[in-house]
Structures are given as C-alpha cells and as structure tokens.
Amino acid sequence: MSLRSSVAAGVGHLSYSVLHGIFNRGSSLPGLVALKLDPDILYHYKDRYDFVIVGGTNGKTTATALAVQTLKQKYPDVLYNPTGSNMKRGIATIFVTAPKPKKKGLAVLEVDEANIVRIVKYFKPKAFVLTNLFRDQLDRYSELYATWDRMLEGVRMAPKATIIANADDPIFNSVDLPNPRIWYGFNDQPMGDLEAPSNTDGVVCPKCHHIIHYGFITYGGLGAYFCPNCGHKRPKLDYEVTTVERMTSADSVVKFDGNEFKIPVGGAYNIYNALAAYSLARFMGVNSSSIKNAFVESPEIFGRQEKVQIGDKEMVIIMVKNQIGVDTVLDMIKTDKEPFSFAFLLTALPADGEDTSWIWDCNFETLKGHNIPYYLVGAANYKDAATRFKFGGFKGVNVEPDPAKLIDRIKEIPTKRMYVVTCYTAMRQLRKALAEQKLIDGGME
Amino acid sequence: MAKYQLQLAHLYGNLLNTYGDLGNIMALKYYGQLLDTDVQSRVVSVEDEFSADDYDLIVLGAGQKFEQSIAREDIDSKRDELHRYIEGGKPMLAVGEGYQLLGQSYINQRNEKVAGDKLLSHRSELPTDGEPVQGELVIKSLLGTNMHGHENHDLVTFLGNGEKALGTVIEGVGNNRDDDTEGAVYKNTFCTNMHTVLDRNGELAKKMLLVALANKYPDADLTVQQNVKIESPY
Ligand SMILES: [Zn+2]
Questions:
Q1: Where are the domains positioned within chain B?
Q2: Which residues of chain A are within 8 Å of residue B109 when distances are taken between CB atoms?
Q3: Contact, A429 vs A326, CB < 8 A?
Q4: Which of A60, A314, A353, B77 is most exposed, with the fewest beta carbons within 10 Å of its own?
C-alpha cells in the first residue's frame, strides 16, 4: 500500500472511531474521508480479498447477508456492506475500518446496478450474483433494459467472473457472455402453458420479441419461461428448489437439490434470496449442512419485516418500494390463517419515487378472498391510495393522513394483527413515533 | 347487469404497462357504473386482430422504450383499422409512450429518430437541454376544468395541424418547455403526458364514456348520464 493510501486508510479508521461516537451517520464517513485523501483507495485492497458482487433490484441485502453468514465458515474474515450503503464511499468505509485480514479475506458487496462498473474498475470479482430485475422507481433512468445495459458494462469488465444468476428471470439470459454461468431457480411444479398477467414487466422474448410463455410462474415475471415462437427457454438449472413443503407468512420449509432447509420468514421472494445465498455458498465450497445451520441461526437477516407489540395488538411493518414488492408481500400475508387488518401507507418523496402510478398495477384485489375486516390507507399521498382502493371496489376503507397516528388507530382494529405495508418515508415517520413512545428501540434504522 | 355495455381495447396492455394504465381502465369501469354502463376490457397486443368495429373505447398506455419499440414493430399492421377508429370519432386515450407512438416521429432508446404510426400530426423530440420532465402538472383543460396529474417523460412533444391541446399549463411543463400546451386532442382521441390521468380527472372519463355511448347507442336518451355529477373520488 502506498504511503498516501496508508494515510488515507488510517484517517478512515480514526474518523470512524471518533465520528461513530458523535454522529449517527458515521456509517459512510470514514470512506468519504479516505476517498477524499485517495480517490482510488479501493485499488489497494484488491489482493487482500476475494470479491463477490451481488446485484439486482430486490433481495440484494438479504442474499448478501445470508451468503456472508454461510461463508464465514470458510473465510475467517468476511466483509460486507451491512447497512445497505452500497455506494463507493460505503464500500470504502468497510475496507478502511476492517482489521487487516491474517490470510486472504472475502468481501461480499451489494452494489447498485449503476455502480457495478465503478467498483469492478478496482478489482475483479470471483463471482457476480444476480437476483432479479424489476422496475423499481419509475424514473426514466431505471427502465429495465437500460439498467441491464449498465450492469452488463460492469460484467464485461470481468469476463472470468462466474455469473450466478436467477434462471427464472428471462433478462439474465438475453445476451451471450464469455463468463462461466451458474443458474438457480424453481423446479418444484409441473409444467403447463401460461402467460404472465398483462401488467407484468418484461414479458417479451429477449431473442425474438414475441410474448413469452411459462411452464409455471413463481411471482411477477419469474418462472420456467419458454418462447413458443423461437424456442428460447430457461437454461438448465445448476441449483434448484426441488420442493416447497410449507410456505406461511412466518416461514417456509423447502428442499434445495433434495435437501431440506428451513427459512425463518415467509414469501417466495425470500426462498429466492436463500437460494441465491445457497448457490453462492456452494460455488465457494461450503457444504449443504453448514448452509442449513446458517439460515436458522440468523433469522433477523431475512427481509424488512418488523413486529411491534402495541397493547394487545401486533403491528407488522413491511417496507415496499415498488409494485413487485407490494405483490410479493401480499402473496406472503395472504398465507396468514388468522383474520388480520391491512394498512397501506403511500408517500412520494424522492426516496420513495415521485411517480405513484405503480399503485394501480399492484394486485390489491387479491386480498378480497381473505378474512380482512379492516382496511386503512394513509400517509401524505392518502388521496391517491384511497382512490386506488375505491376504484378497486373496496368499501369502508379507513383513512389516516398521519402515519404516527397508526399507534392509536391500531386500538380500533377488530383483529389481533395489522400488516402495515408502507413506503420508505411513511415508514420513517411511523418508526419515529414508535420510538418516541418507546415501543421500539429508536437506534435502529 | 348495467343498461349499457361498452368494449374497451387495452392496446398493447402487456407491453405499455409500466405507468399504471390499469388505473385509467379502472376509472372508466368505475365511472361507467355511475352511468349505468358496464365496461369490458381486453388486451389487444402484438399479432392480435384489431377491428375498429369491435371496440367502443381504447386505452393506449405509457411504458418503457424497449416495449414501445416492440409495439412500434406491430402497430403498422393495425394502422388502417386505428385510422378508421380515430376518424370515426370513437374515443381513445393515449398516454406517454402511447401518445408518442401515434405521432409523426419520436426518439427511441438508442437516441434515434424513428417514424411514429402517423395517425396524428404531433412529433416528439429530445428536449434541447436533455433534461427529462417529472413532477406535478396542473392544466386548464378544454373541458373547462382544471386537470391534475403527474408527468414523467423524457421527450417533449410539439402539436401539428388539426390538433388542439388538451389544456394550457398552469403548473408544471406539459408537452414542452416552449408553448404552455399539454396533451393533444384530435376528434375524440385524447393524448396526455399525465399518468393515470382519469383517476384524478373523472370529467375526462365521463366525456369518453358519453362519446362511446352516443356512438354505440345513437337512439338512446342519455340525459341521465349527462347529468351525473363527477365528484373528486377522494
Ligand atoms: Zn423467442
């Protein structure tokens, strides 16, 4: 390491220990300071670590954290960016603040699609893990194929890296690449001939531009796809879900390659997250039973669900940021056997995405067959949410513009549990109020 | 069952499907009920037959550029029937990329100028400063009402011969940064940059439904329908 980088790294260390005690926002400051001193500081870690980059729209954080949990068995020093701060400075922070690895360490980095190219500039990863690509925030910059092109720019700079990708997402098989490929996906159902619902993203065959069909669909546009026109189809799976034995809102029991795994939270998307982590761990040489233990020993890693007890009521807070996020959450909570109440909080600040038109593509209507005696819509954009539910044929929906007041409103629900499906800003407002009333620990973010 | 039935074609509804156009269809169905009218919706997409006689309403929505390019490859095959539909004064809503597709030309995902389907006279271009447009939009509409919506577009549009603006911009950008217009109207084809426009602007939904009813049921007395008051849904 050059003198300049050593100094930069040292200052990073200092600022972390000093600033972390003073400010809450210490998480990426050491990296910021170190990058100011040496903008290319990442370059100096390229030989001390093996690297894995995790990319995709949803599930990056969960898949990364799970993979780290399993890989700790093989690498004594595993770094990752735990706060979801996946910009360059967040990544710089974890290196400058980590103890120097005794032997070669491993860094598993969750990287935003647009930043892959900036990170790959400094080191060549052993593997890319690609979870899925969905429309996220509805700005023109994040169109599906534009995002994929930006990811590919980074991937093309590391042609030797193995790509471990979700085989059920057609876009990951849309271009030929020199890289070794590993595919994971679901293989637990008989094959039929289905089309995705018309409001599904990316249902066009990447080879011939006809509408793609599916043997089965797991959620969104993911599944065993095939093109009836040109024969393009899902690649052969290397790692697969062979059985889903149980899927509730609280957990799943599944078989990966014939071996049973318990996943301590519900939802098909968390099965994908676990399968992504499993595939990476297997690729890195961790055995199946070690992976199994890692899953059950760290239930807090899964998802963004948070349970809060308020008197005799339970509030389950689940953050969403896009249509597919809502639909996967709806699929999960519908497996709850008890009657429950449902709240949807809509905000449209830049952190949430300012275009709220995605709410019209969410399948809220599928809640109607379930025992849900109480609905509420709320937060700053409650009018749009109320219109959505009204036009969707829901009657008697409660309205609450202030997320903080949900703490009182939950007392009026006729069920024990209320699921609060919420955008980021409304979640912050609700959590702040919960923290003020000492219902949750305010230090968590 | 309601007294009247209308058939709606959701044109390229499985491609131009990103910006909540199902909401426009849900609004037409909701206001349809207030007008004693059932609206049946069907996706008409690539390689599907489209006959102007089969439909009373069309929604052609907004979407991503890749999907827009696939709709572009197909729409020529439907052009004659769409022309007959539009010239026949039947109501259509075109939003965002759908609006661009109907015009003379627009810019694709590779920044190339491509021909639109030339059913209408406007053209869409990259803004000179390259800045995409996003934010709240308020216009004084030619229906006499103020219309509200969210605009989110990377191209700017200039109206051509025979087209009127849907309204004059009060707040926001609208078609472009030069002439204070928003949207386009030709006969009963309504084009706009506002996403899910009918959800916040029931008057336009009512207008489209009344036109469709008058076309399909020329002898019906629609006084009751005309007198239905549109209130803000929330
Ligand atoms: Zn094909």
A1: 4-226
A2: 143, 145-146
A3: no
A4: B77
User: Could you read off the pLDDT of B10-58 as tens digits, one per residue?
Assistant: 999 999 999 999 999 999 999 999 999 999 999 999 989 999 999 999 9
Given A355, A382, A391, which is nearest B199 (Cβ)?
A391
pLDDT given at position B31: 98
| CATH class of the domain at B4-226 | alpha beta
Known catalytic membership, residue B195: yes
* Contacts A143 to B, Cβ<8 Å: 64-66, 109
DSSP state of A393: T
Instruction: Give the count of beta carbons closer than 10 Å to the beta carbon of residue B81.
Output: 16
Integer CA distances (angstroms), B1 to A60, A237, B207, B227, in order? 48, 49, 22, 21
**For A221-335, where are the E strands, in sequence order?**
222-226, 239-247, 252-256, 259-263, 306-310, 313-319
Largest CA distance in chain A: 68
User: CB–CB of A193/A213 below 8 Å?
Assistant: yes
| H or E segment to which residue A7 belongs | helix A3-22
State the Cα–Cα distance between residues A355 and A142, nearest whole angstrom: 13
Q: How far apart are CA B45 and CA B74, in angstroms?
A: 8
- Is 0.95 surpassed by the pTM of this model? no
Percent over 70 (pLDDT), chain A: 90
Domains of chain A in start order, with CATH, are: 3-297 (3.40.1190.10), 304-436 (3.90.190.20)
Does A362 count as an annotated binding residue?
Answer: no
Element (H, E) at A244: strand A239-247
Checking if the pLDDT of A12 tops 60, the result is: no
Distance between CA atoms of residues A166 and A143, nearest Å: 19
- A208 assigned ligand-binding residue: yes
Query: Using CA atoms, how far apart are residues B86 and B119, in angstroms rounded to an integer?
Result: 8
Residue-level pLDDT at A422: 96
Predicted confidence (pLDDT) per residue in A153-170, tens digit? 999 999 999 999 999 999
Dihedral sign of CA atoms A282, A163, A66, A268 in order: negative
C-alpha B16: how far from chain center: 12
Structure tokens at A299: 């239930």
**Alpha-carbon torsion (A59, A65, A71, A75), positive or negative:** positive
Q: In this structure, what DSSP letter does residue B153 have?
A: E
Report which of A197, A294, A191 is spatially closest to residue A233, judged by C-alpha positions: A191
Distance from CA of B100 to the nearest CA of A (A): 15
A359 vs B: CB within 8 A? yes
Residue B216 buriedness (CB in 10 A; 0-12 / 13-18 / 19+): middle
pLDDT tens sequence across A260-283: 999 987 888 899 999 999 999 999
Q: Is B230 on the interface with A (CB under 8 A)?
A: no
